[in-house]
Amino acid sequence: MSVIPAARPPHAAQPSGSAFILKKALISALVALVLFSLMIGVRTEAGPQGGLIYWTRFGDLAAIVAVVFGGSIIVELLRRWWGPVDKDRIVPKPVQSAMSFTGRLLAPALLVFTFLVPVIFYDQRYILDLSILVLTYVMLGWGLNVVVGLAGLLDLGYVAFYAVGAYSYGLLAQSGLPFPTVSLSYPFLSVDFLHLGPWAFWVLLPVSGILAAFWGVLLGFPVLRLRGDYLAIVTLAFGEIIRLVIINWQSLTGGPNGVSGIPRPTLFGIPLDNSDSGLAARLGIEFSPTHRIVFLFYIILAMALLTNWVTIRLRRLPLGRAWEALREDEVACRALGINVTTTKLTAFATGAMFGGFAGAFFATRQGFISPESFTFQESALVLAIVVLGGMGSQLGVALAALAMIGGFELFRGLEQYRMLVFGLAMVLLMIWRPRGLIGHRAPTVYLKQAQAISSDLVKEGHG
Amino acid sequence: MSADRIDDRINNKIINDKILAVDHLSMRFGGIVAVNDLSFEAGKRRITALIGPNGAGKTTVFNCITGFYKPTGGTMRLTHEGAAEIALERLNDFRISKQAKIARTFQNIRLFPGMTALENLMVAQHNALMLASGLTFLGLIGAPSWRTAEKRAIDLATFWLTRIGLLDRADDAAGNLPYGDQRRLEIARAMCTEPALLCLDEPAAGLNTRESAALSELLLSIRAEQGTSILLIEHDMSVVMEISDHVVVMDYGVKIAEGSPEQVRNDPKVIAAYLGADEQEAIAVMESGT
């Protein structure tokens, strides 16, 4: 039993020469051949009689193997050119400083550009719709960032709060806002419904947020003792429970048929439609459906920026600092007299509230909601945005949302290869930036100079 | 035993002026008795050391006092200046620090490594700042009262950073600081909660001679200037003997000796516990030595 590991000097010079590069490329090509021979080399399909028919695509296979072979050589040559790399410094210095320079300008530039999107792309309905979608996910990402990025609580059921917000708005807008009336005669307490008319969205938006936050607290209470994987599983289950309740409580939610005819938002009570009292008629301009889209765009932009502003503000307050401290070390927090329970609950509630706002917006934009919109995939997508963006980084989350949602649409032309490209991009990103696009943490308070803190030191949280 | 009682009477002043009284404290984990019927007192504005060989149950006592464990039996009473006694065993978790004003440090340093030294000290002032920020709402709108409170908190943090000589590194991540600095930062963080009793779990562990001398100085100055009572666990006898007013020796979960550093140093039971010999042998060793 004397297994001695092969002796290898710690800083052995890499075997050099073209022989090594060729050998490496050959091995890569071989692996690619084995991997893709069944995936691409042979294609099977159910035949017309139900039998299995197949045909071969050896040409494609050969092309892919050749690409891997060539790619391997290029990657190896690039590595040589960059010289020895260690863990901290994969990107060369000048590139890094250029990146940090653009990084400082990136956020304001992006913001200005976002404000101008409806002006630039006024005629392109598709781009406007897409940017609204991206902004919705930016907002969801920023909301989940409070829970996952700052407090370090892994939440796989974030879509539940999105659903609660959407259904709160959808259902309350149709029934009107209930308020109890107390009277001296039987039945003493009755519930009246206040119909909100054109103001439905603006009144019910905060209500949806509050209801979602309430559900966040409800979820938070039982799961506070759980950490890490266990917390993730329970939040995942919570997300599914909400969806199943929505599907099965037909009398309230309409079940799989969903809720339709959800009122659109109005501009201070003025609807944006082609009626005589609509905005276009009042301003005396020609009606165009794009007005509403632009209006929706600025609503979600304002909501997302509000989320961002509140989060940035909260980080500098004792509550936000306690969230981050909780992510770093829960035991130390308790020793410092921080109530861990309420701190976690506020993180859950704050994140859920932003999710609820986004849900209400989603409902008013679509005009129709059904349980299909609130599957686990949505949770996973939002979580991927947060993780990819760099946990805790606001700019990173926005960029990740843009890349995930926008990029996904960008590759629509590639059809079936879209997922492949997407997966490849994620793998590459995780190799180069394992802690997300923006992996460092900015301190919330400083005496002389704020220095970014390397991601090596920042904890991910244990639940 | 009789020597202990006489010593108690001599040190009557300490006993009357106590901040913490631990009475018949027991802690069992299943069948294992970690602390068995332990009683001792910590004097106000005094440095009390809890020493003993590894596995004697010192850290368990600390965890009971600071609310991380619920003791199986016994009481722990904390007396603040001019206030009623607080039964620590009835408070749990974070309330020990918040209400009883007991702060602690850990044997293995538990700073927030990804936060700067200054942020670490700001987190320590959480409860005071939380009130000042109107449970976040006043802070969110940037009320002037919150701004002044925040400034005061930064001033307190700066004061402690100056005190431990880390002002230059205030904006560095705590995880990037050298080991000795981290130890001192943890003490400063505990002091930022403005405690009445400071519990230090092996503050000199891993420090070199110069650093532990500086630590002794820091602890003495904390006692003198802030008037904080200190309870410490320590293996470094030079620190214990230099700064302690009162020493409690534990072994196998029970108290085996108590008294001034001199008395404890010459107690055969203590020497026996540390050398792993029995009492008769230890006496023999001492007699042959003197």
Order of helices and strands of chain B: HHEEEHEEHEHHHHHEHEHEEHHH
How far apart the termini of chain B lie comes to 23 Å
- Write down the Rg of chain B: 20 Å
Which structural class fits the helix and strand makeup of chain B? Answer: alpha/beta
Characterize the structure shown.
The complex is a heterodimer of chains A (463) and B (290). By secondary structure, chain A is mainly alpha-helical. Chain A is 63% helix and 6% strand. Chain A contains 16 helices and six strands. In chain B, β1 and β2 (32-43) form a beta hairpin. The radius of gyration of chain B is 20 Å and the shape is globular. The chains are: A mainly alpha (463), B alpha/beta (290).
Q: How is the topology of this model organized?
A:
The complex is a heterodimer of chains A (463) and B (290).
Chain A: H1 18-41, E1 42-46, E2 52-56, H2 58-82, H3 93-120, H4 125-150, H5 159-175, E3 177-182, E4 189-194, H6 200-223, H7 228-248, H8 250-253, E5 259-260, H9 279-283, H10 290-315, H11 318-328, H12 330-335, H13 340-366, E6 368-369, H14 376-389, H15 394-410, H16 418-432
Antiparallel strand pairs in A: 1-2, 3-4, 5-6
Helix pairs in contact in A: 1-2, 4-10, 4-13, 4-14, 4-15, 5-6, 5-7, 5-13, 6-13, 10-11, 10-13, 11-13, 14-15
Chain B: H1 2-10, H2 12-16, E1 18-29, E2 32-43, E3 47-51, H3 58-65, E4 73-79, E5 85-87, H4 95-98, E6 102-104, H5 117-124, H6 126-132, H7 137-140, H8 144-163, H9 179-191, E7 197-201, H10 209-226, E8 229-233, H11 237-243, E9 246-251, E10 254-259, H12 261-265, H13 268-275, H14 279-289
Parallel strand pairs in B: 3-8, 3-9, 6-7, 7-8
Antiparallel strand pairs in B: 1-2, 1-4, 4-5, 9-10
Helix pairs in contact in B: 5-8, 5-9, 8-9, 13-14
